[in-house]
Amino acid sequence: MTKTLVIAEKPSVAQDIVRALTPIAGKFDKHEDHFENDRYLVSSAVGHLVEIQAPEEFDVKRGKWSFAHLPVIPPHFDLKPVDKTKSRLNAVVKLAKRKDVTELVNACDAGREGELIFRLIEQYAGGAKGGLGKPVKRLWLQSMTPQAIRDGFEHLRSDQQMQGLANAARSRSEADWLVGINGTRAMTAFNSQGGGFFLTTVGRVQTPTLSLVVEREEKIRKFISRDYWEIHAGFHAEAGEYLGKWFDPKWKKNSEDPEARADRLWNIHDAQAIAEAVRGKAATVTEESKPTSQASPALFDLTSLQREANGKFGFSAKTTLALAQSLYERHKALTYPRTDSRALPEDYLPVARDTFGMLATSGMRHLAPFAQQALDGSYVRPSKRIFDNAKVSDHFAIIPTTQAPSGLSEAEQKLYDLVVRRFMAVFFPSAEHLVTTRVSQVVGHSFKTEGKVLVKPGWLAIYGKEAAGEVEDGKAGDKGQPLVAVQPGEMVRTEFAEAKGLKTKPPARYSEATLLGAMESAGKQIDDEELRSAMQEKGLGTPATRAAIIEGLLTEKYMLREGRELIPTAKAFQLMTLLRGLEVDELCRADLTGEWEYKLSQMEKGQLSREAFMQQIAAMTERMVKKAKEYDRDTIPGDYATLSAPCPNCGGVVKENYRRYACVGKSGDGSDACGFSFGKSPAGRTFETAEADQLLRDRRIGPLEGFRSKAGWPFTAEVAIVRDEEAGNFKLEFDFGDDRAAEESGELVDFGEQVSLGDCPICGAPVYEHGANYVCSKSVPTAAQPTPSCTFKSGKVILQQPVERSQMSKLLATGKTDLLDKFVSMRTRRAFKAHLAWDAEAGKVNFEFAPSKFPPRPGAAAKTIASKTAKTGAAAKKTAKPAAAKKAPATKTAAAKAPRKAAAGKAPSAALAAVIGAEPVARPEAVKKMWDYIKAHNLQDPKDKRTIVADDKLRAVFGKDTAGMFELAGILGKHLQGDGE
Description:
By secondary structure, the protein is an alpha+beta fold. The strands form ten sheets. It has a seven-stranded mixed sheet with strand order 2-3-4-1-7-8-9, sandwiched between helices. The longest helix has 29 residues, at 163-191. The chain is globular. The two termini are 53 Å apart.
């Protein structure tokens, strides 16, 4: 009997599909990776199982990120499994290849990304054929209720219907790869020309989004505040008192002065003269009252929901998306959230009524009466503002489903409440106000007073006390207030008048709410909702991807989040300066990227071919790389800072240029410059201007995070400006707080002022802070014990995780720390959580991982603790010392395999044997013996302990006069016969 394989995007969705199909298709049997009955196999991905990559002959590793290997534009893309989900991929592919499976149903999320996830799995399963060749249908869900799922299976879409979306999905993925890989490698190559490895990430959508934030910050920095005055007066009428503000009735908007207003005066004397002239004088009054109505805002799409939740609750875009996804998938309480539509299908009226019925009987006591009022008053009726097929694409607006949720978290409840109120509000009548504008004329001067009285609350009743926040200008001081009555012909008296001094303000920094709005309109300031809707197809990214774009910029340290403000870093300004200098407009102009998004939406509708789009992207990529490759000027033009601290060498002025902060002499024009300068981005981390000033002033700053070694490994260090006697000037130097210096020089360490963190787990002596480590007092030379006798040492920063004193004290007292969550794997670059624990058997601090929430699969090979244990002593050194960062081989040990034998000894070469002896020796032992020889013969450079000055014997081993301490292992490997695996 033939079967249909249904592939969902997540296991939870697969379970929902099984529950929905069981009443009509029969009971399913549960297997390890799927469910099965006589008609269906239901399995799932776990997000992306396959990703695109360049074919092997086009792949360029990081060590070869130079212009010589760019651009990389492969004729086609290969596929590779995502490492952490290989087993799931194999399980799905095995099911898809079964002979009894004759049809596939793509049940991944109904959008561009869900389409891509399925298409890549199907292509990978087909191998060289590029697909399995089995018929494909598409399940397109707007809601996750059982009935909605069954309806979806009744109306499966054909593969041909989905071809436009599939083309757009693949094109988006490949375009992001081409622009991201080539742009990042080209800009990294450009910035690394002076040495080192300065990783400079760019992205097709990420970078133009960053340009919006940088441009806003530039306007703020360049803004010059101006003083202005307003004249506020109080008037006495028979019925009471009221306030008014002076204005010029003849004023007209001036495009040359955007800060001018009808009620602003730029001269204090004019303002005071008017105040003096009207004070105590009689005034005539004219007023006009007119009713106004205000409809509720439209239903939510994802972007407007993210903006509202950020403004009301401070939720990040990422948090709002995660909450909405949980309410959709887990609680079945909301419709599909990743939508750009704010309308409902025209046949959705009965569902809307049913939803009101659910809300009227729900436990939401604060809203149930309004739902009942809507039903009793027949508010739920056809309206083009709400039900409009022309405004619905593949998805409609986010609304509550007919399923009442339970067990919501506080954050989920807040978001659900937000959506429910908006859904109800659009059906309620408009709010009606009576707006009164009163003008008081005093000796030729006009004063305006505005009052706004709510006549019929309409939809505002749903918001109650929050209504003021829902009404534009509702919180302004002179609005929303009833005015005291003035009789016709009555003269009022000016009780007081005063000139109030104020200052113009720069534009506000972006919050996530306002940045999402700017992304939606590709940076154009659009307040009109209709016009904003028309611009949506030319926005930056899609509703589904905008949160991830913002988070990516924060992760890459291009932006910082301070409260609700997003602030660009020095790294962001440097990238924008570079792109503008190279004239790579496509990456620094949001409107151009909006055009690319529009072309993708055209492709979804079948109005643009995939081939034409990809040709345009390839041409743009080639142009971008060419501009970076052929740029031949000394510096990039830009708006650069002047530091307040003087040059340490000559006392001159220090100015910024594209790559460095450099002395330009006391004259400031470079004619008497002394040659002092330091790089703006040592080891790939860009100094903020304030940091550069502090470094110059104090000659030291840090420890700072975010540096990267030449091999790309992250590390933390202090930075110091030190005297370079040979050059007769100052230079920049990393200070790793390395306590080896004391050991190697024999200098005694004094812990006298410190409080011990606890007892050493090896010898029981006190443990203290020392340099970049926590050390046993007997592991360094002290007055009490000049020769160290203990080995306990643990880093204060391990794999980017700061280890606080309190955590080290806890480890020494109880054997392990709390669960720490900021470790970053050197191999995968992913964050992970672990305890630091004392491993008595290994004699050092190791990782201890929390037990998995999921039990191991039956028959899966058990992994030993050793396979999950990383040696944090080495990790600490890698974090502290970039040059030492060397990838350690994985130590996975399956239970079925015998433990690995210790490395066998290798015979040293004749040159090496002259130093360490002729006995066969493993490389670590050879390094130890080499160090013994170096120390015994005092061969370390006194100015730089990391440099070894070779004697005759070592010169034969090194092949040169000096070698760095981190080169030793590599050099010795060449001299050990049979070594080098």
